[in-house]
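From: lab user (bench 3)
To: helpdesk
Subject: output format question, protein + magnesium ion

Hello, I'm new to running complex predictions and I'm not sure whether the block I got back is the full result or only part of it. Here's what I submitted:
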Amino acid sequence: MKLGMWLDAVRRERPLVHNITNLVVTNIAANALLSVGASPVMAYAHEEVGEMASIAKALSLNMGTLTPDVVTAMRIAGRAAETKGVPIIFDPVGVGATAYRTQVATDLLRDVDVTVLRANAGEMSVLLGLAGEVKGVDALQADEALPTAMKHYALASSAVVIATGPVDLVTDGHTTWQLSNGHPLLAAITGSGCMLTALLGAFVGVVPEGSPLSTYAEACVAAITSYNVAAEQAAQKALGPGTFHMALFDCLYNLDSRAVDASAGVEVTGA
Ligand code: ATP
Ligand code: TZP
Ligand code: MG
Ligand code: MG
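Helpdesk reply: Thanks, we reran it on our side. This is the complete output you should expect:
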């Protein structure tokens, strides 16, 4: 599978990605999108989120610092995106940590037609009713039944389902991709998952409308691999989390699409 072509498409088309994200990562998510060649916008007012989501190429929803106002903004934006066929990415940050987060995530997934669901493996385990564990926003433990549960959920909801960690799993219910790129320093900075959730918006934002779910899954595989290859390059320049963080933007900006294909660690099952 050619992955680098998706990065080229993002740089060519510069998709507008509407983010309703959290207070911790707002700036770095916008910078990650700019570094990869996309166009970020953060908009929260109930008065404008519907309009913004309808002109965007993707809507990225992130539950990191929830308030009732943010939840309403997500619902209004989600409805507008659905009406216009704009793909929606959802990151249920910290689901399972509190009853409120679990309720919001469950309700949103029931009411909004999400195209891509991304969480760390602990959050995904909790969300799918398995024996996962989260501590605040960090994964503590995933369930070994996770890959099968993800496939079932993907089929039932017609969504791409992604669980990240040292190894990332992506499934559309038929095919599962196991991705081995990345670096432990990603777990040493806050927002590494949230930046990825924003970047998924850029990559699914260039999928031609009307494409099958498998094409959205491929774009997600390309997004994760591009990000994780950039992280591997950044780690080589870094002294620790601080310099790694800065180098990550530089490496995303300078990432060669051929290097993505050359370094990709992708295992496919069920194709
Ligand atoms: P957490 O809250 O546990 O940090 P998260 O939402 O930030 O979770 P992660 O699961 O940490 O999300 O994944 C974010 C990115 O970091 C992904 O691209 C993933 O592949 C990568 N990653 C996380 N941990 C590692 C690791 N130990 N080695 C390599 N890559 C990793
Ligand atoms: N608290 C609420 S959101 C957030 C923190 C620390 C950022 C979480 O980012 P990530 O990418 O899920 O680690
Ligand atoms: Mg993290
Ligand atoms: Mg997270």
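A quick orientation on your result: The mean pLDDT is 96. Let us know if anything else is unclear.
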